[in-house]
Amino acid sequence: MMSIIPQRPAFAGARRRSLALLAILGVCILAALSAQSGLGQSIPERAISCVHLTLSDDPTVVNVTWRSNQVTEDGVVKAWPAQLGEMPADEAQVVTAQAVQHSYKFARETVNIYDATLKGLRPDTVYNYIVNCAGESSPVYQLQTAITDVEAGYTFVVMGDCRGNYGLFGKFMRMAREAGARFVLFTGDMTDGATQAEWNMWFEAAADTLPYLPLMPVFGNHERGAPRTYFEQFVLPGTEKSYSFDYGMAHFAIVYDVTNAELEEEVPWLAKDLAGSDAVWKFLALHRPFYASSPEWDESQSPKDILLPVVENNGVSMVFSGHVHLYERSVPMLGGKPAKGGIVYQVTGGAGAPLYALGTSETTAKTIRTEHMIIYKITPRVLSATVVDSNGGILDEYTVTPRK
C-alpha cells in the first residue's frame, strides 16, 4: 500500500522562520529594556545586603532592615552619635538593637530578612551605625533621627512609580540625598511585578542612599501582585497597611487604597488619625489620585468620593499620589471644585514608569509629561516645592500655605 505523507504548505517554512525572527527580536527588546531598567543586573548573595531605613511614629526610633543569605541569631545593629567618630569603647554611648530574623518563600527561593529597631535615640541627631550579621559587618553608615521642634524647617522629597526603571530610581534617590532631604515619601509602584528579585534590584539600585535616607512607602497596585513581598521588605508604624508619623511641624498619613472597596475599610482609621493630630501641616499620601486629566486615567477609580469629607474636614493641606505616570498639580480644591484656600492635589508618578499622555481640565494648574521628583522645603508658614527632572532641571515651582 502506498503511504501518503501529508505535505506541509509552502508557507510553513517561511512562517517558522518569521516566528523565529520574532522570538529573537523579542529577546533583544527584553534585553535592551532590562539593561535600561536594571533588570539585567545580577544581585550577589551576601550576608548583608539591601540595607534600608524607615521612620517610626516615635522620633527616638529608627528601623534598620536588610537581607541575608544566612540564617543566624546574631544579627545586630549598633549606633552611636556621629560626633564621637569611630565606635566608642564605652558601651554606654552605643545603642544596640538585636535583629528579628524572618524568612518566607517566594517561588522556590527562601528569603531571609532581618529587622532591627533602634530605640532611645536623641531626636534631630546624626548617628553612625553598623550592621553585623553572620560574622560579617557592613560599612559604617549614618542616619538622622526625626525633628521634634515644630518651628524647625526641613526638606523632604516625594516621588512615585518607577515600575522597574531601577537605574532612574537610584539616580533620583541620589539627587534627593544631595538636596538635603530628611526622608523620601514614595507614592507606590516601586516594582513592576513585585517579585523578590525585583525588590532586590530596587534596593541595590539605591544601595548608596537607602542606608542613609529613610524611605516611607505607599502600597501601589503593582505591589498587589505579591502583597506579602511588599510587607516583608519594610517595618512601618501602625498596621503597616495604613500608617502615619509626625516629623516636626507636619503630620503624614499614608492610606492603603488599591481598590475603593478596600479603601472604605481604612476610612475610620484615617478619620480618627487626622482628627487626632494638631500639627500645623497635615498631609495625606495614597497611590491613586483624586484628580488627574490624562486620557489614560480611569476617573471611576478616583478615591475622591470616599475621602473628600475626611480630608476637607480634618485640615489636610495637600494630598500626594502617583499611579498616573506624569506630573500634575491641581488648583486648590474644595467640594470637588476650584476654591481659594482649598487643598492642593499633587500627582507625582514620574520616577521611571512609562509616561502617560497629557490632558487638561478645570482642576489642572500644571501638568508635564516627564520623569521627575519633587523637593519640598517646609516651614510653619509655607511649603515651597521645586519640581526637577532627572538632570536637575527645574520644571515647576509653587508654594502652599497651611489650611486653617
CATH architecture field of the largest domain = 4-Layer Sandwich
The N- and C-terminal alpha carbons lie at a distance of: 97 Å
- What name is given to the CATH topology of the largest domain? Purple Acid Phosphatase, chain A, domain 2
Order of helices and strands: HEEEEEEEEEEHEHEHEEHEHEEEEEEEEE
What Rg, in angstroms, do the CA atoms define? 24 Å
Low-confidence stretches: 1-42
**Broad structural category:** alpha+beta
Total E-strand runs? 24
- The main sheet orders its strands as 13-14-15-16-20-17-21
Mean pLDDT: 90
Largest sheet, described in full?
Answer: 7 strands, mixed
CATH superfamily grouping of the largest domain? Metallo-dependent phosphatases
Portion in helices: 10-25%
CATH domain class name of the largest domain: Alpha Beta
